[in-house]
Design brief:
This protein has 282 residues and is an alpha/beta fold. It folds into two domains: 76 residues, Arc Repressor Mutant, subunit A, CATH 1.10.10; 159 residues, 3-Layer(aba) Sandwich (Rossmann fold), CATH 3.40.50. 59% of the residues lie in helices and 10% in strands. The chain contains 15 helices and five strands. A five-stranded parallel β-sheet has the order 2-1-3-4-5, sandwiched between helices. Strand 3, helix 12 and strand 4 form a beta-alpha-beta unit. Helix 2 packs across helix 4. The longest helix is centred in the middle third of the chain and has 19 residues. The radius of gyration is 22 Å and the shape is globular. The chain starts with a helix and ends in a 9-residue tail after the last helix. The mean pLDDT is 89.
Length: 282
């Protein structure tokens, strides 16, 4: 039985029924909440969440959470998300719902960011000779944005984007001087996962930017930076991952302020010599 079937077959009482209803109502959101967040939403204690998990057949909440995340990735697509949205009465505007979800994602990202892992990733980027950025589909915007920051600071960047990157990666001589940052969320794309596996086998430092510590990409890589991507009606939201990309760029630039100021002054000089911006009214 999957987690939903286990919940339905359990003899739940009192607040346990409320917890069950909350967890199964909007899986695209609830699957990625922490135990304390669920306890707060359901107005119960943290221990009540643990007891609920044990009641439905798990050793504790972490095991239940892993099952919920797995079920979400296997069953939830933009189609299911949109069907869930249009099937219920909408009291707020689409604008309000979308903004509220993005704000929630940012707040969750801020409260769960692993500062220790972040500093290790920044150190790896600083020491790396070549930074390989990997993504497919909508996550490619994260590759392009981070690449623009790192290139402005004179880092050598290779972008691996679109389908076919696993074959492209086989032509790269990865080694210990390489850093590979892979972006993938929800149902992890096989090709992104393959690039992570292959580059790690060859000795590169591998980093996952994703939405769960228990998905295949996180398990494969050396470091994981997590960001929520819950959307309201269609697909995923990249607001929190873009915030992380901004943090990576800003934190790396701040490592050596004087040197990086000089680099950015050279960039500005180039812009002045080859004007690329519109001037104001003459």
């Amino acid at each position: 039985m999957n987690v939903i079937e286990k919940i339905k077959s359990s003899k739940l009482v009192g607040s346990q029924k409320d917890i069950a209803a909350f967890l199964t109502k909007e899986l695209h959101r609830t699957a990625f909440l922490s135990g304390p967040e669920i306890a707060e939403e359901c107005k119960v204690s943290n221990s009540a969440i643990t007891r609920f998990a044990q009641k439905v057949g798990y050793s504790g909440f972490p095991e239940l959470k892993k099952e919920l995340e797995g079920l979400y990735r296997n069953q939830t697509t933009p189609l299911e998300m949109f069907e869930s949205f249009v099937s219920k009465e909408v009291k707020d505007s689409i604008t309000g719902l979308s903004l509220s979800q993005d704000i929630e994602n940012i707040n969750r990202f801020q409260s769960t960011l692993n500062e220790k892992n972040l500093q290790k990733v920044i150190k790896a980027i600083s020491k790396g000779k070549t930074i390989h950025l990997v993504a497919i589909g909508v996550a490619e915007i994260l590759v392009d944005t981070l690449a623009s920051y790192l290139e402005a600071l004179d880092k050598t960047v290779v972008k691996l984007k679109s389908f076919g990157i696993s074959k492209q990666a086989e032509l790269i001589n990865f080694n210990k001087n390489d850093v590979v940052i892979c972006f993938s969320f929800q149902r992890i794309l096989k090709e992104v996962h393959k690039v992570a596996e292959y580059s790690k086998e060859k000795g590169a430092v591998t980093i996952a930017v994703t939405d769960s510590e228990t998905n295949p990409l996180s398990i494969t890589t050396d470091y994981t930076l997590m960001t929520p991507v819950s959307g309201t009606t269609f697909g995923m939201s990249l607001v929190a991952p873009l915030a992380l990309v901004n943090i990576l760029g800003n934190t790396y630039a701040a490592l050596d302020k004087d040197t990086n100021l000089k680099k950015l002054k050279r960039v500005k000089k180039t812009w002045d010599e080859y004007p690329i911006f519109s001037s104001g009214p003459q």
